[in-house]
Design brief:
The protein is an alpha/beta fold and 260 residues long. 52% of the residues lie in helices and 15% in strands. It has one domain: 3-Layer(aba) Sandwich (Rossmann fold), CATH 3.40.50.720.
């Protein structure tokens, strides 16, 4: 018996991914800070889908947290054949206006924890006949974004790191994919304190359930990069071929507050 381990699984895309996998009769491990929510989520998966589900209440932004997760898996005698690094958040605003602690915590969670989870948990994944890693990036990874400078840069790291890891594991039993969603109907913008542009962004939102279905299908199909939504896919591809100055101006215009 092998589980899918999903970080940031208390809500949003992470929870949608858990439900999508559970609907396909895959056992689930949920990781996030919200213990009460995770307990209820795990219970729902067990009762609704008839799968095994457990959770670990943990702050994934702490240093060396991947070792704690690995020790928990060993104590529980859990094997994993899917690792989904979904946990992450944004801090909105100019670098000079966002607190140093907020920026550093975000960068540690979005980049260091994700990369270390891949490093530390890879031996567990390799014990299976077939295993998968899916790292969650963002369409913001494809260009710099003013007022989301650190977040976009951290997601660019996820994209490039995942591409490299995929090359290293090519031909092995571990498939590596990168999921890059665009605007999605989650609590993402609330946590990033993006209320001032929330109404504008919601015009482009897709549901986390749609993202999850596309993501899981793409992961099992061994796709390198998964970008849900035709407009999001087109935007990411255009960002790769258009002049950077133009794409970055467009991106910043989308995320800045217009003066009244």
């Amino acid at each position: 018996m092998a589980y899918a381990l999903i970080t940031g699984a208390s809500g949003g895309i992470g929870w949608a991914l858990a439900r999508e996998l559970a609907s396909r009769k895959h056992d689930i491990l949920l990781l996030a800070r919200s213990g009460d929510v995770l307990r209820d989520n795990a219970k729902e998966l067990r009762e609704k889908y008839g799968v095994n589900a457990d959770y670990l209440d943990i702050d994934l932004s702490k240093p060396d947290i991947a070792l704690t997760v690995d020790n928990w898996l060993a104590e529980k005698n859990y094997s994993i054949d899917i690792l989904i690094n979904n946990a992450g958040y944004a801090s909105w605003g100019k670098v000079q206006d966002v607190s140093r602690d907020t920026i550093n915590d975000m960068m540690r969670l979005n980049m260091l924890t994700l990369a270390d989870m891949c490093k530390v948990l890879l031996p567990n994944l390799q014990k299976n006949k077939q295993a998968y890693i899916m790292n969650v990036s963002s369409t913001s990874a494809y260009q710099a974004v003013g007022t989301l400078a650190n977040y976009a840069a951290s997601k660019a790291f996820v994209l490039v790191f995942t591409r490299g890891l995929r090359k290293e594991l090519n031909g092995t039993n571990v498939s590596v994919s990168c999921l890059s969603p665009g605007p999605t109907s989650t609590g993402f913008m609330d946590r990033a304190k993006m209320d001032a542009i929330k109404e504008k962004a919601e015009k482009f939102n897709v549901s986390p359930e749609s993202v999850a279905k596309i993501a899981i299908n793409g992961m099992f199909a061994n796709k390198a990069e998964i970008i849900p939504g035709a407009l999001n896919w087109l935007g990411a591809k255009m960002a790769e071929i258009m002049p950077k100055g133009l794409t970055e101006k467009i991106a910043m215009d989308l995320y800045k507050v217009k003066k009244s």
